[in-house]
Amino acid sequence: MMKRVGFILGLMLAVVGLSAQTQIPNANFEQWNSTDKGNAIPKYWHSFSDGDCQLKGIYSWGCGPLKKNHSNRVTGHTGYGCEIYSTSISGNLANGVLTTGQMQFVSPDGNSPENYTYTDKDNKMGHKAAMTFTGRPDSVYFWCKFEMKKPSNVASAKFILHGNVSYRDVPTHTASTAQKGKIGNSYCYFKDPNDQKWHHYKYKFTYYDEQNQVVKSTSLTPSYILISFSTNKIAKGGNSGDKLVVDDIEMIYNKRLSYLNIDGKPMPGFNPDITEYTYACDDPTRIPDVSAETQSPNATVSIEKSTEQILITVTHDDGEKVYRIGLRDEVAGK
Questions:
Q1: What pTM does this model have?
Q2: Mean pLDDT of all residues in 216-238
Q3: Are strands 276-281 and 319-329 parallel, antiparallel or unpaired?
Q4: What angle do CA 165, 167, 173 make, to 5 degrees?
Q5: How far apart are alpha carbons 324 and 220 in whole angstroms?
Q6: Higher pLDDT, 329 or 27
Q7: Which domains occur in the chain, in start order?
Q8: DSSP strand pairing (80-85 vs 102-105)
Q9: Which is nearest to 319 in space by CA: 255, 260, 237?
């Protein structure tokens, strides 16, 4: 009987996991499809080796070198991390790139709109280069360490939430100009601190409506997330041998309250990180009025009241945070 219960519970959890994907799988880079030099690639991620190379003429000679990944498994912030590095291919500099999508190469011009990374939702290349994702995070945190030839180099990380489309991240696109289907994004550009230490980067997400205009919040649920890390924000930028190590990517869902008022006044001692409170009532038969607002525009709040306690529940895509106010009879002293 216990095995049957365990099986059913496991099945239920699996169904929940399929319906809601709010964190990046293998975001700590502990799982690898291969760790061989030249072929090292973390599970669920992609790079040059499975890129769609459509270069023609003499440029097609570059398709051979593209069949090796520019990534290695190395010691990370915790456990392993993924090191990406730039290299020279047929005399042309190629940035180190790590992506959840499919890389396409059509032109030798690194800034060509024909070269882009995209979510291959229909799996036309057979690499499963499409990461399902349903969350609407407020921020993304990740750790990086640089080893650049010139400290002035600026690396990039792009996180693009989109609907059920084969979304393309074209070099000429900016955060505000892109194809339809984008729901939100976080464009991250960060400079080498030139200290060879791990640094924690934190960037906010911006959300858009169907006309690609910035909105405070969105009711749209993403279908996929397209992520791309690069050793340089400029195509063919930097120097051969530039390295960037990535580790421990975390999506942040803010479930804190911005304020909590009781009977029209701020809750005494309110701190958005503290969830347990006591409130003295002069009339034990009256339930106080409570109002609250979330810090995140993509979170919701609900209030449940009784003569003994008030529960304020903040719900976000990855779960709940509950604030509790215990009601005490001020006259009786209990």
A1: 0.88
A2: 93
A3: parallel
A4: 145
A5: 30
A6: 27
A7: 22-252 (2.60.120.890), 257-329 (no CATH)
A8: unpaired
A9: 255
